[in-house]
Specification:
The chain is mostly helical. The chain has 15 helices and twelve strands. The radius of gyration is 30 Å and the shape is elongated.
Length: 474
C-alpha cells in the first residue's frame, strides 16, 4: 500500500465539488463540457484541402465585406493574424479608406501599367523593351516588368513568399500574390511560391499549427491558442499548441525556452554529473542504473537508497520526498563564491531534469519487459492478455507522470522564493514519492498485487492532476 493515507491525500467528495465549482465558474460558455483532466484540449486534425477551404472562407468573407481582390484580402489577413473583424474595424475607422496602401503597409489590389514613353528603369538603367511594360505600385515606385520578375524570382529562390516586398530601398510594402504570379512565368517557381505562401499563412494563423511529427502533413486546429497538449491523431505526436515545442506542463512557454537555452549553453559543465553509475553509499560497490525507478537496492549489501541523493530510502518516507528540494546556502563572500553557489543550484535542478529524461527512456525498456512477461504468462495459461492489461496501463501512466515531473524542475528553478515555491516543492515532492512507489511496484508486480498497484496508480494521477491544476498557467 502507499505510505500516504486517506488523511494525507485529502481527496474528499466535498473537495472535488469545490474544484468543479471553481473551474466551472472560470470557464467560457463556449468551452467544451467540463473535463477533470487539466490537460484536456480539443483539437481538429485537418488535411491540406481542409485547411485551404478554411482559409479561403476567411478570404471570401473579407472580399465580400470591403470589396477587395482575394490576393489583397490574403495580404490584409496575413498582416492581422487572420482576424477578419479587426481588418473591418480598421477599414471603418479610416474615413478615406486609404489604410490599404498606407496604414496597413500593403499594396493596392491592382498594379498600374504606365506608358513606356521616355521611361528609364532605375534598376536596369535602360529603356523599356517594346514587348514589356512598367508596373507602378501603391508606394509610387515604378520599374520595368523584367526587373520586377527578376526581383520576385530571386526572392522566391531564397524562400521568401508572404514577406515579398517592393524592391525600392527602405520600402517594405508587401506584394499581393496576383502581382507576383503575373510576373513570374516559370512553373517551378510559381509552384514554390504558392507552397511557401500557404505554409506562411498557416504559421501566421494563431489557431493553426503544423504537426511536428516526422513526415506528417496534418495541420492541427483549435478554438483557442493555449499552452496545452495537442495530439495528432495520425502520427500520435504530442506538442505544446502555443509554442509548438515539446509539451512542457507545468512550466510555461517562456520559462521552458529560457531553460532549454541555459541547458544548451551549460551542457558541457553539467556533463560530468550525467553518468549512469554511482557507488553504493554503504559498501561502495559500483552500481549501474538499469531501470526508471530511483529506489535502488544494492545487490551486494541489500542496502536501499535513493539514486538522486544517495540517502537511506527509509528516510524518504518519514515526511515527504525531500531530496527534490534545493536548500539555499547564502553566500556573503566573494563573487566567485556566489558563482559557485549559482552553479551548484543549477546543477541540482539539471541533474534531476536529466535523470527523469533518462528514466523515461528506461521506462520504455520496462514496458518491453512487461510485454514479454505478459506473453510468458499467457503462453503458460496463467491468465489472458486482458487479465494482465493493468500492467501496461500502469507503465503508460508511469511514463505520463514522470514526464510531468521532469518539467517541474525548470519551473522550480525560476520560481522566486516564498509561500508559492514552498507549496510547489511540497507537491513536487509528494508527486515524486508516488511516482517512485509506482515504478517500484510495476517492476515487481504480479497478479496478487493488482489492487495495490491500481490504488497506487490512482494516487499518482491525482497528485499529478492537482499540481497541474494549481500551477500550470496556459
Amino acid at each position: 500500500m502507499s505510505e500516504f493515507g486517506d488523511e494525507d491525500m485529502d481527496y474528499s467528495d466535498q473537495d472535488q465539488d469545490d474544484y468543479e465549482d471553481y473551474y466551472n465558474a472560470e470557464r467560457d460558455v463556449k468551452s467544451p463540457p467540463y473535463c477533470p483532466d487539466p490537460e484536456y484540449f480539443p483539437v481538429q486534425c485537418l488535411t491540406v484541402d481542409e485547411v485551404e477551404k478554411f482559409l479561403n472562407e476567411l478570404v471570401e468573407q473579407l472580399c465580400n465585406s470591403i470589396h477587395v481582390t482575394p490576393s489583397m484580402s490574403k495580404v490584409l489577413l496575413y498582416e492581422n493574424k487572420w482576424a477578419v473583424q479587426e481588418v473591418l474595424w480598421k477599414f471603418e475607422e479610416d474615413a478615406d479608406k486609404l489604410f490599404i496602401a498606407s496604414r496597413m503597409k500593403t499594396l493596392q489590389p491592382v498594379s498600374k501599367k504606365k506608358k513606356i514613353e521616355e521611361f528609364i528603369c532605375a534598376v536596369c538603367v535602360a529603356p523599356v523593351a517594346k514587348d514589356l511594360g512598367i508596373t507602378s505600385l501603391a508606394c509610387g515606385h515604378c520599374y520595368c516588368d523584367n526587373c520586377w520578375r527578376c526581383h520576385f524570382e530571386s526572392k522566391i529562390s531564397q524562400g521568401v513568399s508572404t514577406e515579398l516586398s517592393c524592391m525600392a530601398l527602405n520600402c517594405d510594402l508587401l506584394v499581393p500574390e496576383e502581382i507576383v504570379l503575373s510576373a513570374v512565368n516559370k512553373p517551378v517557381l510559381r509552384k514554390q511560391y504558392q507552397h511557401f505562401a500557404f505554409c506562411e499563412y498557416i504559421k501566421s494563423h494563431p489557431l493553426l499549427r503544423f504537426c511536428p511529427g516526422a513526415n506528417c502533413n496534418v495541420v492541427i486546429k483549435s478554438v483557442e491558442c493555449l499552452a496545452k497538449k495537442a495530439t495528432c491523431t495520425q502520427c500520435e505526436t504530442s506538442f505544446c499548441f502555443k509554442c509548438g515545442n515539446d509539451y512542457h506542463a507545468p512550466t510555461d512557454c517562456v520559462t521552458i525556452k529560457k531553460w532549454i537555452t541555459k541547458c544548451a549553453d551549460d551542457s558541457e559543465t553539467a556533463n560530468y554529473i550525467t553518468g549512469n553509475t554511482k557507488e553504493c553509499p554503504k559498501c561502495n560497490i559500483c552500481i549501474e542504473k538499469n531501470g526508471g525507478c530511483n529506489h535502488m537496492q544494492c545487490l551486494s549489501c541489500k542496502f536501499d537508497f535513493c539514486w538522486m541523493c544517495l540517502g537511506d530510502w527509509k528516510a524518504h518516507g518519514t515526511e515527504y520526498y525531500d531530496c527534490s528540494k534545493y536548500r539555499e546556502n547564502p553566500q556573503n563572500g566573494s563573487e566567485s563564491a556566489k558563482a559557485r553557489e549559482a552553479l551548484k543550484r543549477y546543477l541540482h535542478y539539471y541533474e534531476r531534469w536529466e535523470n527523469h529524461s533518462k528514466s523515461l527512456l528506461l521506462e520504455k525498456q520496462t514496458s518491453a519487459k512487461i510485454k514479454e512477461r505478459i506473453n510468458s504468462k499467457v503462453m503458460t495459461s496463467k491468465g489472458t492478455w486482458i487479465d494482465w492489461q493493468y500492467l501496461l496501463d500502469a507503465a503508460t501512466l508511469l511514463a505520463k507522470c514522470r514526464y510531468t515531473l521532469q518539467y517541474t524542475y525548470p519551473y522550480a528553478y525560476y520560481l522566486d522564493n516564498g509561500p508559492k515555491k514552498e507549496l510547489f516543492e511540497y507537491q513536487q515532492a509528494k508527486l515524486e514519492a508516488e511516482i517512485e512507489n509506482l515504478s517500484w511496484k510495476i517492476e515487481r508486480a504480479e497478479t496478487t498485487d493488482r489492487a495495490e498497484l491500481e490504488n497506487q496508480m490512482d494516487v499518482a494521477e491525482k497528485r499529478r492532476g492537482t499540481m497541474l491544476q494549481d500551477f500550470f498557467q496556459t
